[in-house]
Amino acid sequence: MTDVLPQPDCSLKAVCEPLELEEPGSKRPPNTGARLWGRVRSKLLRQKLDPQTVETKNWHTDVIEMNGIKVEFSMKFTSRDMSLKRTPSKKQTGVFGVKISVVTKRERSKVPYIVRQCVEEVEKRGIEEVGIYRISGVATDIQALKAVFDANNKDILLMLSDMDINAIAGTLKLYFRELPEPLLTDRLYPAFMEGIALSDPAAKENCMMHLLRTLPDPNLITFLFLLEHLKRVAEKEPINKMSLHNLATVFGPTLLRPSEVESKAHLTSTADIWSHDVMAQVQVLLYYLQHPPISFAELKRNTLYFSTDV
User: Fold this and answer.
1) Alpha carbon distance 123, 282 (integer Å)
2) CA torsion, points 283, 284, 290, 295, in degrees to nearest 10?
3) By the 8 A CB rule, do 47 and 61 touch?
4) Helices marked H in the chain
5) What span, in angstroms and rounded, lies between the C-alpha atoms of 86 and 178?
């Protein structure tokens, strides 16, 4: 995973885009901006940080030049282990890294405010965006939104309305990724893995619905809220190119990946995370996305108890 941030005095967007607006008599070749940005992206994709740089976690600076324009940018490598780690926040006053039950109780809401606002903004102006939730937003924009939500800033709504939609989608993903335990909980993780592997359709249905009923109410309500949102996004697949499977691939690991402590109990190596378990996590979410609408009230009325030990 490579985080790319421009130097403070050099914004890639500010440098590249205006190059297309040169005066008619300019000697600079046409499409310089697009070509320069393409070269920067190509450089980022090819960049291989040496082991010493990775180990020291230092920033690596590089320069791209074209037609008299110089772009300087910095990047650093974050190991996959670190990017997967769920770290509880030391401050319980914010929302990132704080248990969802704590946040909903403090807000006196059923679904965290950050989830509701990000979903509303995506549905308002991003539901037809090609690659929504798949294309990453700018890291600095996402961190800015994170800070605003953590501080419960009064300018949240204004900032959301002005922010790039991919940054808002990225903020929502980051919120779920940074929960101290996954939305579908550490305790139920083994059961979800077993349930999705059942071959009998009726047994799988009973098991997967029972597991939802077992979730704490804030987790269940938030999950169902997100589920319906993702289904609405998938309805626009002809435009946004995001199918149910694509969305499950993006959100499955985010909603199910166990915390560090639980990971040690269920996973033997980093490779496992990115093979068998990831595929199962995707399949769990895909199962619910493909399922007919699930009602919280109906789930709670159903008192069927089913054991996954079959």
Assistant:
1) 23
2) 180
3) no
4) 12-16, 32-46, 51-56, 80-84, 100-107, 113-125, 139-151, 156-162, 165-177, 189-196, 201-214, 217-235, 237-240, 244-256, 260-266, 270-273, 276-290, 296-301
5) 6
How does pLDDT run across 234-259, given as a tens digit for each residue? 999 999 999 999 999 999 999 999 98
The structure's pTM equals 0.72
Question: Which stretch of 12-21, 25-34, 148-157, 244-253 has the lowest confidence by average pLDDT?
Answer: 12-21
Q: Where are the domains of the chain?
A: 85-305
Average pLDDT, rounded, for the chain:
81
Distance CA 302, CA 209 (A): 10
The DSSP secondary structure of 132-147, one letter per residue, reads TTTSPPPHHHHHHHHH
Q: DSSP letter string over 225-282?
A: HHHHHHHHHHHTHHHH---HHHHHHHHHHHHHPPPHHHHHHH-SSHHHHTTHHHHHHH
Q: What pLDDT is recorded for position 154?
A: 85
Topology of the domain comprising 85-305: Phosphatidylinositol 3-kinase; Chain A (1.10.555)
Secondary structure (3-state) at 76 = strand
